[in-house]
């Protein structure tokens, strides 16, 4: 069976983009060989408010469950609950070269931004982040990593590290591959449709939160930026705003954007129908989240059980890696 692993950082609330681009596919891919992880250690590359980090970690785990990931089938857990992640990350740091880590697009972008706006502080973790991500993936003998296009490079690096480690120390890791969904499923910012709808970006009017109230969702969609010519057609390069609405409508109703465009001649009706479709799509998730959030002890119990299941595989793989590099086993 195909082993699947993916992770999401508990920073900022999940958005319609995180749902349509990632979480929805995680639900489709789920099975006893699927692991879904709240990657709290990855959040620490930039300073976090401790109270907020704790709350967002539990909140994101609750969201995983609310969208339909079934903890009786897939493994749902928090990264820091399985200490093997940090331990294997060190071995991966020593397998990666500084040059490789520096070449990562995300590192270049984030370190530049930190230097400009963040008071010049760039943590060491920002550089070594992909080594921790490689550890996440390799610990579980993962075959497939469902990720957005922006994470493809990190999964490629994971492959390179696995291959290098195996050739230096003997066959230890399964070499994984990224499974990236077609670009049509990418949800863009409603106010700036040339950039991705992102949860960490501060564009409240351009971002629909997964748990947002129906009235607010409708308002944001109705105020979405469209394009100057008034026809409705799917063409992301010349009509990014309208195409984004069509992508959202299509993804929310299980069609292609081209099919979703049929019958529309004006922006008004397109916006109304898109708003209705998104509200309808998110309503059950919101209701389920409210229910789950009322019983945090149950979510904690699910996470404890998930970590315990995850640890079994993680411990075996880590022991194999430790032995392979020549760490003396304790007696
Ligand atoms: N780096 C990923 C992101 O920012 C999150 C992540 C961490 C991840 N570890 C992972 C994704 C392992 C897939 C597999 O989106």
What's the gist of this structure?
The chain has 13 helices and 5 strands.
Give an overview in words.
It is built from 13 helices and 5 strands. The chain is globular and about 70 Å long. The strands form 2 sheets. The chain has a 3-stranded parallel β-sheet with strand order 1-2-3. A two-stranded parallel sheet has the order 4-5. It starts with a strand and ends in a 6-residue tail after the last helix. With 331 residues, it is mainly α. It folds into 2 domains: 4-179 and 295-325, HUPs (Rossmann fold); 204-290, Tyrosyl-Transfer RNA Synthetase, CATH 1.10.240. Helices cover 55% and strands 7% of the residues. α3 packs across α12 (267-293). Residues 5-7, 9, 39, 42, 133, 136-137, 145, 147, 151, 154 line the site of tryptophan.
